[in-house]
Amino acid sequence: MDLNDSTSLAELMSRYMSTETGFGVPKDGWRICLAHEFKEKRKPFQAKDVSLSNMIEHVSLGVRYLRWWYRKTQVEKKAPFIDMFRALPLRQIYGAPLGGIGGGSITRGWRGDFCRWQLNPGMYHYKTVIANQFTVCLRRGGQTVYQQVLSTERPPTLQGWNWGYCGEYAFYHALYPRAWTVYHLPGQNVTLTCRQVSPVIPHDYKDSSLPVAVFVWDIENKNDYALDVSIMFTMVNGSGHKDDKSGGHWNEPFHLEKDGESVSGVLLHHQTPVNPYTLCIAAREKSGQEISHQTAFSPKGTCSALWIDLMTDGRLDSPKDSTLAVSCSVPANSHNSVEFSLAWDMPKITFGSRERIYERRYTRYYGTKRDAAPSLSHYSLTHYSKWEERIDEWQRPILKDGSLPAWYKSALFNELYFVVDGGTVWVELPEDADISGGLRPEDGGLPAQPEVVKEYGRFAYLEGQEYRMYNTYDVHFYASFALIMLWPKLALSVQYDIAGSVVQHDPTERLNLMNGRYSPVKTWGVVPHDIGDPDDEPWVRANAYLIHDTADWKDLNLKFVLQVYRDYYLTQDEQYLKDMWPICQTVMETELKFDKDGDGLIENSGYADQTYDGWKVTGPSAYCGGLWLASVCMVCKMARVLNCESVYQRYRDILDRGRAAFDKLLWNGKYYNYDSSGQSLSNSVMSDQCAGQWFLRASGLGDDDYQAFPKEKICSALKSVFDLNVMSFAGGQMGAVNGMRPEGVPDRSSVQSDEVWVGVVYGLAATMIHEGMTEEGMRTAEGCYRAVWERMGMAFQTPEAYCEKGIYRSLAYMRPLSIWAMQLALNNRPNHGKTTDKDVGQD
Q1: Beta 170-175 vs 30-33: how paired, if at all?
Q2: How far is residue 237's CA from residue 701's CA, in Å, rounded to a whole number?
Q3: What is the CATH number of the domain that holds 670?
Q4: Could you point out which of 30, 261, 351, 635 has its C-alpha 20 to 30 Å from the C-alpha of 803?
Q5: Taking the alpha carbons of 372, 373, 379, 380 in that order, is the dihedral positive or negative?
Q6: Which positions ≥6 away from 213 have C-beta within 8 Å?
Q7: Which residue numbers in the chain have pLDDT < 50?
Q8: Which pTM was predicted?
């Protein structure tokens, strides 16, 4: 199949029976008929998927992990940071998440279900609350002619409602942060379009923090007579979690008038002992429309009273039910619209250990008293049109670019879901906080409260919904392009947090599960793996990851240096560069100890000591060696910018020697070998072998004095990767496999070498584009997008990894945000037009 023929996309809509296209639905995005069923059913990676040789090699790891898992789950009653025994099963149901950044998230599936909840910070709850629905009622001449729950489900509860909407007459369309669901009502000549809007707006640090979403219902009446139409929104107090039954929850109506605009709705106060919150459903009052509500909705039994109540006159009168309905008249062959909002107010949060209290970012504007839901609802309903104008302004240049294929436009914006739905927290910096790690600027450290952190707060997102560690740094290296290009102040805030952690030391000894040895939790002078587990105390106890001692990893320190200069290049923030410079020198000094033979090139230590933490590497390697040379290049550049000539000369000498060693030890005439160990698989072709060059190009370097790799060798290596890892794998339709043998079969020496890592593929594609191989780069990335979004049914839960057949690993993962590196590379193409400040990260 030619990837460009959109066969798989057409299949997503093949069961759609209507010709209706909806009201204002854009051309570009991810579109699927509500009746679609994915043919491919994958399963999560499990122990049985490990080869016999790998299983034998890792028996001791398995035993240590089992003991640790038992103590964590059965004794401590905590959730493991990675649960290898209870991987998430694939549910092919998710759609665009609701809400802004860092205030918690609620995901609404593409069939309309409220089905994924992250209100407690970083802790996910996967439960479809079936009573949370929209229902339509059509009336003509005072009589109800049609009433339907807009859901294809037929649940065993609430049987007094009319379920089972025919999904063949509806489709879902996502172009994040908006989504549209189009319902053609069979036999009624009426089409409803529900537009879902969340305030995710680049370079905005106020509205983008708000925990709200708006649902605009556009009603098209194509009959030659008028209709009265009611849309009812039902919402249960809770998320389907066991604490819903704990008691003490209560609801109340509200009405708020401000600046000549009024909203009405229902507040659902959820009184949990930890992190209580208030849900709020509301509607905007408009001339000619009527809002009716009830405040005690109980989804038990048949609930026929509510159904009959709405059917009687299109409004709600029953005192027993909690819901909201908006009624309006739609003239013949005309259109009308109604507007709802959903808000949630959890202003103060604690993490799992409950040692500290944090205030979410939006409380800067709405306070911490948990009384903000009416104001949030009013603001969202009266300002969402301005959000949409700004979203259009941001997306339009890309959507209008005829040189970009449709799949890419969908991938670029829809993969951004993870910025909100990555267990994300965005909190204010407490007044007594000191992020410096105790080392002050005069001693080579940081200010206690850097201005950017004080003004823009602290930001954290999970490595993945299943890999529960905040700001996992080896992965953030890839994902960070989305932040630095769209919310650069948050990217810099993360960097300050990491920099402060570098100079911290936690001498507590703990067992490393891989090798069975003990080591300190955090070693001074090295970049942490992560800033902590949300079920513990992030920002206080770093390094929730305990499989390896990451103080000995070869990539973390380098990825810090590479991001520092890239961020400076894109933001031109001189104070940031000055603040980071001593920390860069510290981590480079630490890294130099890995150059055992003094040839200017670091060596790996014979185990999986980098982001590919299941793939052994020995001696100088393409991946870590390349990152090292790129980092040395950037230190030279930073030294010149900051007029540190002695540092420049020192690292210039290292660069000259290191380049020669890298070529001598790793170049084989076509590409860089995986490593220089001389073992049977050391000449495998690694898809990520040019990661160092990628960051050099993204930072405006890679030529003349700041060249680490000859251009002709980079292009040859990328061509080898394209020919072997991409086109010789799965018919060229699934992206690039991590490791490929030169004879054209995947490297199966580890559990990771024969996987495809989606975020790595997007980074590889960006590298190809930087080097003028745009067609190859787009083809490489397209395979991943079509596999994940169109064939495997993993929309809005892009995994870390999948194999050619059968399995995937770690759903809803951070790394695929690296697709924004492709956009940066595309912006920098010759003759593309001048890149604006806002394209590349300046506010």
Answers
A1: antiparallel
A2: 54
A3: 1.50.10.10
A4: 30
A5: positive
A6: 98, 99, 106, 196, 197, 198, 341, 342, 343, 380
A7: 1-5, 319-321, 834-838
A8: 0.96
